[in-house]
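During the second year of the project, the team shifted from modelling isolated chains to modelling whole assemblies. The rationale, set out in the original proposal, was that interfaces cannot be judged from single-chain predictions alone. As a representative example for this report, we include one of the complexes processed in the last quarter. Its constituent sequences, exactly as entered into the pipeline, are reproduced here:
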Amino acid sequence: MKATVYRKEHFNAAHRLHNPNWTDEKNKQVFGKCNNPNYHGHNYDLIVKITGEIDEETGYVFDTKILSDLIKENIIEKFDHKNLNLDVEEFKTLNPTAENIARVIWTILKQKIENKYEIKVILYETERNYIEFPNA
Amino acid sequence: MKATVYRKEHFNAAHRLHNPNWTDEKNKQVFGKCNNPNYHGHNYDLIVKITGEIDEETGYVFDTKILSDLIKENIIEKFDHKNLNLDVEEFKTLNPTAENIARVIWTILKQKIENKYEIKVILYETERNYIEFPNA
Amino acid sequence: MKATVYRKEHFNAAHRLHNPNWTDEKNKQVFGKCNNPNYHGHNYDLIVKITGEIDEETGYVFDTKILSDLIKENIIEKFDHKNLNLDVEEFKTLNPTAENIARVIWTILKQKIENKYEIKVILYETERNYIEFPNA
Amino acid sequence: MKATVYRKEHFNAAHRLHNPNWTDEKNKQVFGKCNNPNYHGHNYDLIVKITGEIDEETGYVFDTKILSDLIKENIIEKFDHKNLNLDVEEFKTLNPTAENIARVIWTILKQKIENKYEIKVILYETERNYIEFPNA
Amino acid sequence: MKATVYRKEHFNAAHRLHNPNWTDEKNKQVFGKCNNPNYHGHNYDLIVKITGEIDEETGYVFDTKILSDLIKENIIEKFDHKNLNLDVEEFKTLNPTAENIARVIWTILKQKIENKYEIKVILYETERNYIEFPNA
Amino acid sequence: MKATVYRKEHFNAAHRLHNPNWTDEKNKQVFGKCNNPNYHGHNYDLIVKITGEIDEETGYVFDTKILSDLIKENIIEKFDHKNLNLDVEEFKTLNPTAENIARVIWTILKQKIENKYEIKVILYETERNYIEFPNA
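Output from the structure prediction step:
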């Protein structure tokens, strides 16, 4: 039987929801206040879930200290205290909705973690709006 | 790959657990303090989960503003600051346990949301007791 | 120098805000949804603060186990899973607003705790509305 | 004896810490990541405390529905989904630290609430950093 | 359709991560501060998930009062205010990582709960590190 | 007018409540489960409050990055993943109740922070038991 390890990290960022193929009017209609041209921001809570066997020698599925360092080096360093649209390569052509941010984080971490582990990403944009990728 | 969107809303209600086919004694034995004839109440936290594809144009699985309005119109309006047993049609003949409240909410929302989305309901009766319907 | 001990307890209750000296119309206007004749309810979080000297022998200002028992016997027993308006003597003639509930709790506890301690009561009606009595 | 009412509201905003009288180097040294030229952002939790007498007729110190509307109209409307530095008049010449944001909010609300009430503002920039103005 | 009931309980315990087959050096390297010979400790939050049919007579999947008592008698009684390594039989030869604690709790509860129910255990070691067993 | 800055940090530790001048019987009677000879433990949340003037140049009362480093160097380094009774000098002759831990933390920080600032310490032993020193 397998177990799932959850590790929670945090970053603060500015963003703006915008589709450059649409008129300003349509952007405002679809994205509302989130389309504000001067950006707004969030305290993002990020939870990474790793599923695997419990190692008999360590008693760990995955060392959370190593997982925390991995998330900090690959995600927090890149996203924290940044403007996602302007400062983060991936969102120069991708709308930084919570769904897309979660998918980008998952794609980055997937390459850093052995394939024998299943990984998922939960991203809180606010306490009331959050995303799981891939789906729960 | 799909993603899951979570949206949290809130309502405050009174209720009483009671099975009219049982004696008062059996009701008290099974439901304990929750059977108090004059009702008691809760701050219910409601989380609705919607699973689907991320739309390429919006970057959304489901717009949380629309989801929030949908929940408010169909659930909060009906349940908030109400006595579930006396004021809510569905519970006139159904015992308002957290399980049944979650199922009723799911049944209502299921009819309002396109079939291509999978939906689930998480209902917190207290911080320590909560329900997921359908099952996790 | 003194220290303050905080102990958090919990009760669930139904209530209704109503002033019997007013017309139904005025009650509805002032108390809105909280005036619902069939009651609604809350998960109340109760925090009791006790300020005093740190005892040299125990290292305690006030033993939180004793404080917890005191709150349970005098408050929780009386308020939990009850209808405040109908089941609790003090609210038969007093409107059970969070302010008045906090004051009633303070008055009860004041008589059970030695005068050398200063006590205050914080009462959360919801996560967003709460009261401190006497004032912060 | 008086009581204190607390009401919690929420806004999401982008900001940047910067002193225009300083060199870029000094700004970076003092404000670190918070000086990022493209801004970053936060989910701000705002708690407004009002201290006064409990009104005998209503059982309220201050109706939290009215307080909530007051905060929404005067603060949330102005700050939510905004860039504090660019979109909010008060911060065009004032560095939007949590301290200054709390002071600005207090100054605005002070003019909207009768003098017989004492008001304070608690502003959470993150779960780990927050401010009370005037001081606790 | 089935539903899942969640019940949250709590215990405080000391522990130390250590593999007796390793040198002190290797233990320190792998387990870091968690290998401190004099132990450290945690407030563990324990959530037990039970999945089953909603009973038509009670409206319950599983009575949370009974579930709470079951957890208290079989887990909390045994783990709370204990040193897991020294005071709890199961960890005399098993490293008390969060993964192993969750698995031990699941194994104990599995024998106490009818087979028709599926059970899972979520164990928070800290707010930032937690485990689900079996896997999510 | 002054403002108060709050900064929250965290440490995990084992401890045991015990008065060496008392018999084992009296220790068990007064401290109950907290007297367990093999220790138990907690996730301690520590909030440091600093009150002072808002500096006109920085907009800060006290830079929370500097405050965080100060707490980490002087408190967290010393207390985290430790056995308070055995590993921390101050508690070799002082009972590590939450009251005494808060007082020891305050005494250490008081010497590191300029006298023009007023400082207080809030220490959560559990979510339900916490201390403010000096008193609120």
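The domain at 2-133 of chain E is CATH 3.30.479.10 (Tetrahydropterin Synthase; Chain A). DSSP finds four helices and five strands in chain E.
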